[in-house]
Amino acid sequence: MYPLPIQNLIKTFGKLPSVGQRTAERYVFHLLKSGKKDVGELALALKNLSDTVKSCQICWDFSDKNPCNICSDKKRIRNTVCVVSDSQNIQIIEKMNKYNGLYHVLRGVIKTDNPEKIKDLKINELLRKIKGLEIKEVILAFSPDLNGETTMMFLKNKIKEANPNLKITRLARGLPTGSDLQYADEITLGDALKNRTENN
Amino acid sequence: MYPLPIQNLIKTFGKLPSVGQRTAERYVFHLLKSGKKDVGELALALKNLSDTVKSCQICWDFSDKNPCNICSDKKRIRNTVCVVSDSQNIQIIEKMNKYNGLYHVLRGVIKTDNPEKIKDLKINELLRKIKGLEIKEVILAFSPDLNGETTMMFLKNKIKEANPNLKITRLARGLPTGSDLQYADEITLGDALKNRTENN
């Protein structure tokens, strides 16, 4: 058996997503081998995170400011809300430099195999937001997989109930750039045909 | 761009073995979503590790005692040293309950693609130990892969130089239990034939 402080850290690392016993052991012994400086650096980075990062009370993204930089940016269009599952998705959309509206981070998706977790999602916060007069369009920007589709369907119904006049959109489905027609699945090809665009 | 404390923690997690940018991001946002308690727990476990775990100055394993439990155990046979690459290997051997000698943790192996790292290994500490009169046998218990074989060959020569009368052994090679002859590789099968045992 490992000494208790080693066992404890293995257990704590094991709570991170997809980290099992063996991976957690590797992390702990890597840190032990690299010495106190690296352990201290990680502990300090965690403390700083805990001390300074908070939830933006408007979009529920994590930020060192509340409201966050995007929500407090006067140049942003305030009548469009893009709903994403996680903070990381905001980064992806922002990198494109093609969206100038606001965001709402749901903090996850509805998981068909664990439907109780739905209470942890920022759904009521979204519905409260769209009940106001300011919002005109909600973009549901989830991955088009099973959990993403379930979440979008659920949100669409809830949003319609709460504010029937709102425009609800989702990201276009179709063929990805560089793909080969021959290997496209039926649903993707069907979507691409149905949503065909003019090519003059 | 993420806020600075998030970026910092992503960078720090990224120093763990096999953790890239995406995995580090997942860890950080998982912690943010689970809340301050989990972040604090991990920071505390790291602090405890740093405060209490030290290197045993005899075998170089990590322990909360110096010398460690094994090195200070009077019931252990003190003339046999089993050399392993990492602390985790001690656990594997101890679990069998079939070895009652001492250990020496080399803290890694000689990597053929990064030979400079050899100076971080506890090789001189091993040589100093075996120069005494007490040690009679050194077991080289490394994995029989490229780096393991290189390390064993290197150590064997160094040990012979330092103490020519020492018995140097290595773990037996052969067919693993449950394997199929048909799929055994040539080297393994050759070793199994060469080191065949009597079966009366």
Automatic annotation (TrEMBL), chains A, B:
Domain Toprim: 79-176
InterPro entries for the chain: DNA_Rcmb_RecR, Rcmb_RecR, Rcmb_RecR_Znf, TOPRIM_dom, TOPRIM_RecR
Gene3D superfamilies per UniProt: 3.30.60.80, 3.40.1360.10, RecR Domain 1
UniProt xrefs under Pfam families: RecR_C, RecR_HhH, RecR_ZnF, Toprim_4
SMART domains: TOPRIM
Signal peptide: none
Biological process according to GO: DNA recombination; DNA repair
Identification of the protein by name: Recombination protein RecR
